[in-house]
């Protein structure tokens, strides 16, 4: 007999923005130092604020300062002029943080 499956009791709203940010941050390494990197910075900063908002909604407050820091570091309005190996390594590290947070930030399904 087939049993009726219940939907998951939690939803992970930050998972999709986390995957998108991870992909963009990996691709962004190839564009460091070009004008296109500014576009990546806009998108990453916005996605960081979106994930921070999902963390607030899920009451996972400890993620908020992490993603506010990412939004500040990747902001294109008042950019930090990072370069070299630090900035190249920061991209996949931040992507990993997005992915981990996306998997861990969950809230009860309404």
From TrEMBL:
Species whose genome carries this gene: Leucobacter chromiisoli
Protein's UniProt name: Uncharacterized protein
Listed Pfam families: DUF6804 (PF20619)
Protein keywords: Membrane, Transmembrane, Transmembrane helix
Transmembrane intervals: 12-33, 39-56, 61-78, 84-105
